[in-house]
Amino acid sequence: xxxxxxxxxxISHATEDKPLAEALSDLIEAGIxxxxxxxxxxxxxxxxxxxxxxxxxxxQGELAHSVVVIALLTPNYYASAFCLCELGGTWVLSKDFxxxxxxxxxxxxxxxxxxxxxxxxxxxxxxxxEMRDRLLAFAASPAPTPxxxxxxxxxxxxxxAILANLPKPKTPSASDLxxxxxxxxxxLAEAKSLESELATLKIKYDELGKRKDKAAVxxxxxxxxxxSEQFEILERSTKQALKPLSKAVEEALFYRARGETWYPGQExxxxxxxxxxxxxxxxxxxxxxxxxxxxxxxxxxxEALSKMEAFVGKVSPEFCEAYEEEYEDELxxxxxxFWERHV
Length: 343
What we know:
343 residues; alpha/beta; Rossmann fold; 2 domains; 5-stranded parallel beta sheet; 7 strands; 54% helix; 8% strand
C-alpha cells in the first residue's frame, strides 16, 4: 500500500470554470484513487470552504498544507485577481505544481510566474497520464490502470462540450476594475507576507544549524514558533524533565506551583522516604513536604515548569479560547486537570 500524505491536492481555478474543475476532480478521485477529502476545490460541495469560515484565511491554509497544486489556465483564470494570487502563493511556497493549459488559453498566454514553466495540455491523454503518475503516490488504494484508462477517455470525450459551455470573461467597468485591482494588491501584500515568513524560517534553521547545545536549539525553536507550536515544545520539555522523578516529587512540585503547603495524607505513607533520603524532597519540622530546588535532578523540572507557567500567563485570548474548546476546561497552569494532561 502506498503511503498517504496528510496534505491535499489543491485545484486552483476560476469560479466560472466550475464544470471543468468538477470533471477533473472526478477524474482524480475515480480514476486515480484519491479520497474525496484529499482534494480541495472551492467550487465543489464538500471539497471547498466550510460555512462560516473566513474565505481568504482558509484558502491560505489549504494552499500552505497542500502537496500538489493544479492550475486550470483558462481566460477566466487570467481574468481573476484571486486566481493570480493563488498562483503567486504557489510560487512563493515552492509547491509541486501542475499547470494545465486549455485550448481556450494556449501556451502563448503563459505569463508572469508561469514564464518558462513546463505546462501540460488538458486535452492530451499523455499529459493526463503524467498527472496520474504525479498523484498516484498519494492514493491509499490506487485505481488500476484499466479503470484509469476508462475514466480518462470519458473525461476527454466530455471535455470539448465542457470547454464550449464555459462563460467568457466579462469586460470590467472602471469601478469593477478598481475593486479587482485593490483586491489584487491586498493579495499580493499577503503573498509578500508569506515570503517574509519563509525568509524568517530560513533564518531560524540557519541559526539552528549553528547551535550544538540542545537547550539553545530549543530556545531558537521557541523564538520562531507560533503559540500552538510553542506550547507543544514546552509540553514535551516539561514531561521529559519530570520523567525521572517520582509521583511524590511531582505532587510536591504541583503544590509549589500553587503556592500551597503540602501535608501528605495517609495514602503517601512509605512513599516519601526514599525521596527524602535522596534529598529530592525535604520534610519540615511540622511535617509538611517540599521539593529541594537546589538538587541537580530537581532543577531541570523547576526550570521547565517556570517556562510553561510564563507561557500560559501571556498567551493570546484566541489560544485560550481554542484550548478551552478542545479540552472543555479552563487554561490554568495551577489547575489539576492541566497538570494531568500536560505535565
